[in-house]
Amino acid sequence: MSGDARGVSIAEPFVFATAQYESGDWDSAPLVPANVIDSIARYTNLPVRPQGVIVPLASDAALQYPLLYLTGHLPVRFTAAERQVLTRYLDRGGLLFVDDHNHDVDGAFHKTIREEIRRVAGPLVPLANTHELYRCFFTFENGPPTTSHEMNGWGDNLVHEQLDAIVRAGRIRVLYSNKDYSSEWSFHPDNKRFLSVDNTKFAVNLVVYALTR
Amino acid sequence: MTSRPSVGFVARQLRHIARIRHGLMAVASGMAVGVIASLMHTMGWLAAPESIWRVGAAAIVAASVFAWLRIRAIGATPLVAALWIEEQSPGAPDFSLVTWVEEGCPSEGALARAAHARLAATDVMAAIRQLTYQQCASPLVFLIGALLLWWRAESASVSDAASTTPRAMPVVVEPADRKNVLHPWDIEVVPPSYAMRRAERLGDASSVRALAGSRLVVSGAAPSGDTLPLTATVRAIRSDSGQAVALPVDRDGDRWLVRTTVQGIPLAMVFANDTVRRQLVIEGVADTVPRVTLQAPIRDSVFRTANGTVPLAAAITDDIGLANALFEVVITSGEGERFTVRTVAVGTQRWSMPALTRRATVRASLDLATLGLQPGDVLHVRAMARDHHPDRDRDLGRSETRAFRIARPSEYDSVAVEPAPPPAVDTSLISQRMLLLLTQKLDRRQRAMPRPEVIRESQRLARDQARLRLAVGDVVFQRLSGESSAEHAHSAGDGHDHGVELQGGKLTLKSEGAGLLDEGNDAPVIAINQPLLEAYNAMWDAGRALEQGDPHAAIPPMQRALEAIERSRAASRLYLRGRPPQVIVDIAKVRLTGRDTGSTASRSARGALPAPAAARDRRLMTWLTGSLAPAAFRDSLALLRIEALGDAPAFASALGSAIDALAAGRDLTPSLVRARRALGVVQGVVPSQWTRGVPRQ
Known about the structure:
Helices cover 27% and strands 18% of the residues of chain A. Chain A is an alpha/beta fold and 213 residues long. With 697 residues, chain B is an alpha+beta fold.
């Protein structure tokens, strides 16, 4: 929050930030930001900027955003600057959401990004499906919602029951998904009207959790 | 008495005294732990521990202390006993007895005579009695004190438990001058027979919580004479306009009796005579219907054909006891305006009465083939359960319903396109990894095998390797030229230009534009064929070695081929796409709010309380600020709690805590604050770094 000249408190809008890293294909899900922004506008009163930003992970600019979205298909190797900024980002209370666009347990992205996360923030552990992340806005009784890619046998042909996370002091620092939300949410938001159930609701929980916990 | 047995006797006595002292100290320590636990419970620092846990903890502590003392104890040896006797003897010690024992107790000589004289001069038994008293007195006092405290704490704990059971009010302690026909009374609750519960005597309680249908008997000492100067009425608490119903007051010898039946609504019984009026609050708890949760199947579904078995499972709980449960399957057939419905019961289970079952899981399987289903039929499956309540018209416990539909053949010709699964792998080919493993196995065994057999096995592997090489070649050529065969008479200058040349059975990339693939006007894609070409050529080498019956020489090129295929797999994961659209979400449009004015929502004062809540708040505040007697205040709170049970459970719960606090002599403030917050639907703020919430007090 910040104050304007009249002393009236005006909320700074939430900005959805996609992390850009040197290796791999960081921009593999270009429609996810717009879709998440649309859902936040649709279901919440949060002030939200209508367009997301792409922020280099090696830049201090990343520290301005409470939630960073990182995805890709290809092997990920952070540079020293990226590791350093990411460490500071997480220490300052930011939340990094990593989604494996391959939906693979043994894929190149999966193995390399988990290794990089372990170097930066420690090992990922399964997040209980009763965690408040699944209840902080919409309620997901069974934990993370299943994606159509899981149901249709793509990727590793598994339905992942849980997400992985690094939690410190009761707060999620890094959230890691094998469920390929990047594919699930990468469609033009105008097409949301064709869905009987909006599959981006979990993204609202993610943003609300990042902003309020 | 000889000196040797006497010294041994004293040593044994000293050991006995030490054991007794240690035992007393250990028992006293255990009792002290039990007393401390009881005191902590009394102070509210510890939840009420069961007596068996208190006794167990005390026993463990006692055993530990005893073991510790025994380990630390110095053994009373004959030498120690001799020294102790020397200390007890009159006059200064000359250590003749100690020396005599230390020397091994010779029977003759001056030393033996001196030792005997020393022993004879000492009154050993008197000294032992005095030592026993000294060593055991203080632990015994400690033990007696601990015993008294334990007994006192247990008595307090028992009376506390009795006063809070069942729920609601403690026993009312009335002043002696108020003793009359209504003080004290005795309450007996007889639950309905189907509940299989024992009758309870609650003593002189002011509030009763009982199962609806229970028989309630209030009795008291009746004065002599023919008439009873007592009236009893009962009315529903929540009904303002409800009339009080007079209850008959009977006499049974020297006692008066009033009987009523507990209903599912709160009741207030009022007893009065000429001088005293007393109230009994009855909180009737209705028997709830069983709660049924369908565990399987977990979701609705569409079956392509009407065969197979569907497992069914449901979890059922009840507050009293389950009588029976089943799965109900409703089958709807037909279309348009002609439908037929039939119901099938599956997996019926019954529970007999003598043993009440409060929790159960029922399972069954639904064989679709036996139901005679047709395409388009819909099955609705749910679980149902009934308890032992005698009213047969009572509602059943029902689970949610799952629906299954048998698909019509025509619906698969519609636009409902199922996503295609990933393409199946050509499973007739042995993988390069498998070929490598087989070759390595043959290499290890070949020394023990006859040479012709080695050659035969090796050539068989060579044929598999050749087939795999051809498949790899097909991939290379499909990517480069769309042709499916890698080995169709390629040679230098033959007019074909696939970017590769066949030289001596191997493929080589041409120098210009080698392995590049153009896609329209976009930039050329990096050569994805180089690893496959490497694999192809390595397979060629491996195949040749295998043809010659040399599996050992075939292993390195096979490993190279496998590595190249892995590299190719990684390199092939390229995602080709155009420029993504720049989407800017129109927030105002999404929120249906028109154009954003830049203003944010402002905070506003909370609205007034609803009338019923405001009335309750006024009553509560009147009592708090007034000068009600504690008993009247407690009864008023109890009435208000019962009133609120139905429509304001959080408020009622907070009042229940306040009543408990009042009975225990604790501070009522937190409970009453919670009650008022519950009335006003005030949500507490959870402090966090991001919300900047105000920390809770």
